[in-house]
Structures are given as C-alpha cells and as structure tokens.
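We emphasize that the prediction below concerns an isolated chain of 176 residues; any contacts that depend on oligomerization or on bound cofactors are therefore not represented. The input was used exactly as deposited, without trimming of termini.
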Amino acid sequence: MTAQSLSIEASADWRRAFPGAHVGCLEIQGVSNAERNPILDARLADLQAELRARYASADRATLANLPVLRAYQAHYKPAGQTYHVQRQLESVAFKGRELASPGGTLVSAMFAAELSTLLLTAGHDVAALAPPLMVDCSRAGDRFVGISGQERELKPGDMLMRDGRGIISAVLNGPD
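Result of the prediction step, given as a token string:
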C-alpha cells in the first residue's frame, strides 16, 4: 500500500454506534525500530516534565473528569475495564514512571502520543495490511489473535479495525 491507496472506511454500524467518533491514519515510511534514539529520548524527557507540571495539582478524580478520558471510560466501563491510558498517565504524572517503553522507539513514540493527546493509538506494518481498511463494530463470535499471540474473543459492540483478511485491532483488546 502507498500513501495514495491507504484509506479507512467506516461501516454503517460503526457510524450508528459511535456518532461523532473519529479515526485517523498516519503512514510513515523508512523508519526503523531502534532500541533507543537520543532525539526521541530528549522529547520523552520533555513530555514527562510537561505532564508532571500540567497535572501537578490534579488527582485521579480530576483526570477521570477530562472529556477525552470520560469518553473512553464510557466505552471501557460496560466491559468491566478501565481505560489504560489514564492509568499510564497517572503512573507518569503522579508516580514518576519513565516514558521510555520496552519495544523500541516506535512503541515509545506511540506511547508518548497517547499520553500527550490521551487518544488511543495502534501501529501496524502497512506492507502486511490487505485493503480495504474499515472501522467497524465487533459482533458476537468475533475473534482475532492479539499481539501476545493469544486468540481473543471480542465483546460485541467494541470499536475495531479490519483489513481485507480480518480484525487487526480492537479498542478493548489492542492490536493483532
């Protein structure tokens, strides 16, 4: 796929279930997933300091009341889950956790983007995707193999993305 052919469609079910929701796509070419990068490390340190300063007077309840976090939590709560980006933000802003993430620079960059925007991200190798890409809703019996290699059964009504071969990511279960 090239940047010109990469597009995401939204199913009618997704549009009905998630009115006002948005999905974005960014294609980056020529990247490597180095273990570390000094420029990224500096940006991560800056973001850590920014998050700690931004939320210095906040507590867990204040964070939970942020509009983006409220919207995600409304999706996670019926499934008995908590939006993990909120927990990650708390660990960086309140508990001093470092922003660098195991898994290399690409994972660290996505983690930083999540904490900066509070929006969920997922990364996929474009060369491994089969068109069309579609955001959709999970249905009873939907399954896919998660990033851990284990098969996941999705709860009906979750937001997900499919390519021409099947489910590649689900909000509640992560990427394939």
